[in-house]
Write the C-alpha cells for this entry.
Amino acid sequence: MSTQSTRFAARLMVAPSVFVLFIWMIVPLAMTLYFSFRFYRLLSPERAGWTGLTNYTWFFKAPDFWLAMGNTLLLVGGVLVITVVLGTLIALLIDQPVYGQGPLRILVIAPFFVMPPVAASIWENLFMHPQNGLFAAVARGLGGQPILFLESYPMASVIGIVSWEWLPFATLILLTALQSLSSEQLEAAEMDGASGLNRFRYIILPHMTRAITVVVLIQTIFLLGIFGEIFTTTQGGPGSASNTLPYMIFKQAIVAKDIGRAAAGGIIAVILANIVAYFLMRGIGKNLDA
Amino acid sequence: MGKIVLKSVRKSFGEVDVIPGIDLTIEDGEFVVFVGPSGCGKSTLLRLIAGLEDVTAGTMAIDGRDVTAAAPSERGLAMVFQSYALYPHMTVRKNIAFPLKMAGLSQADQDAKVTAAAKVLNLTNYLERRPGQLSGGQRQRVAIGRAIVREPSAFLFDEPLSNLDAALRVTMRQEITELHQSLKTTMIYVTHDQVEAMTMADKIVVLNAGHIEQVGSPLELYNTPANTFVAGFIGSPKMNLIEGPLAAEQGAHAIGVRPEHMGIVSEGGWEGKVLLSEHLGSDTFLKVQTVNAGTLTVRAGGEVRLSHGDTVRLAPLPGKTHRFGSNGLAL
C-alpha cells in the first residue's frame, strides 16, 4: 500500500488542495494582521498609517473587554455542559423502543434546522417576552411576577437559546454512538450483576467518550463565534452585561467603522481560539486515538 | 450446586411461538449441550435460563429456588457470549474483576481471584492488555475467566467457539472440557455443531423448531435415535434414510443406515454407480447413486480405490439398520 512511489503520488495529488486551502486561510489572516497594526477608520479615510499596538491596547483597556472574554468562555462552557448532559439523557431516552420512534427523533432534531436569528426571535418574543411570552403567562398563572429574562439574566438567557439550538446536534451524535454499543456487552454486564446506573457508568459512558469528545470539539469551534443570537436579542446589553468578543468586534467594525480595531479584535479572537483548542486537545484529544 | 429445572417453559415473540413448551431437568455438575439447526430456539432457551429474556409461561427453578421472575444477576449464573462481549475500554484484569467489583468485593479479594483465574487460563502475562490486543483464543479465555471468578452455580455458553478457526476450536473444546472436569460445575453449552456436542456433552438435548426431539448421552443418541430428525442430525456424514418399498420390506416407513455401517459387497445388496469419491487417507467417502435406494453415502476404508462411474454393490451391516414409522419415530 505505502511504497515510496505511492506515497509520493499521494502527496502530489493532495498538493493542489493543500495549496488552495493554505491560500484560503493565510490571505485573510495576513490581511487581518496587517490591518490590526494600521489606523484605518471608514469615517476618516484620509487619515491612515501605522499605529503600532494602539489597536490592541485599546481592546485591553476597554472597560468591558475582560467581561466580554469571560462571557465568551461562559457561553462556550455553559452550552457545552448543557448540551452534553441533556444530549446524553435524551439520547438514552429516544434509544428506547417506543411507539412513533421515527417522528419522535425527527422532532428532537428539528431545532437544528431553525436559523439562529429566527430561533433567537422565537425565544425572545414567544417565550421570554415579559408581556406576551409563554413563561410570563405561566408565571402569572402561578400568581408570580414574570421574569425579565433578557434584562435580569441576559447571559443565562443567551446560553439557554444557544443550548436549545445545539442540543439536537449533540443528541444526534451521542445517539449514534449509543446505537453502536453491542447489546451483548450490556447483557454481559447485566449477568455480571451491574445495576442500571453501573451499566451506564462503566459500559455506556466509556463507550461514548469519543463521541462526546467530537461533540465538544465541533461545538467549541462554532460557539466561540456565536453572534446572531446576541445581536437579535440583547445586543450585548443591558449595558455590556452580555457582550462577547465577536459582538465587540462587530461593534468596532460595523457600528464604529474602525477596521483597524476590529482587525485587532479578530487577531485576539484567533489567539483565544488557539488557546482553547490547545487545552481541549491536551485534555480530551487522547480520546480520539483508537 | 446447580440443578436447573424447567417446567412447561414457553416463549413467544408476539404471535410467534419460538418455544411452545419445554420440560427439562439439568442435574448438578452435568455438561449439557443444546444442539440443533439454526433457528431451532436453542439460543433463546439459553437466554431464558440466563434471564435475559422473560418466559411467556411456565416456571424455572435453580437448586429448588423459583427464579422465573428473577433478574439475571440474582440467578447466580455466568454466561460466555458468542462475541465474548468483553469490555473494550478495560484491561483484561479489569474485565475479569468486573463481576467481583459489582458484587462489592474488596480490592485485595478481587486481585487474589483474578490472579488465580489468570493462572488457570494462562492469561497471567496479558492482564494489563486490552481485549483489542488479544487473539481470538485469548479473548475467549478472558470471557471464560470473567465467568469463573464469580463461582457461579452454572455456566452458560452461547456458541463460544464459532468465531475461532478450526485448529483453535479443537484446542478450546478440550480446554473447556478440562475446565468442566476440574470445576465440576453445571455447564450448559449451545452449539449447532454436532461434533462439539458429541465430544463435550454428558447429555445432549437435540432441539428442533422449539421442541426437544431427544435427550440422552452422545452414544445413546448415536445408537438409538428416537426419530428421523435426530438420526439425521447426529453423526457425520449424515445417516442415509431410505423410504419406499425397501423400507416396507422391513415393515417400516423409512430405514436408516449410517454411512459407516454401509458395507461394499461382491453380490446381492443394492447396485449403484459411484458419483463422487473423496479420499481422506484414513477414510473414503463415496456418494453412490443406487437403482432402488436413491443416493447413498458410504464411509469406506482408506484402501478402497473406487472413482466416478464405477459400479458397486452396497448392503447394510447386520443389525445396524434403524427403522422409523410414518410419523418419523423409531420403531
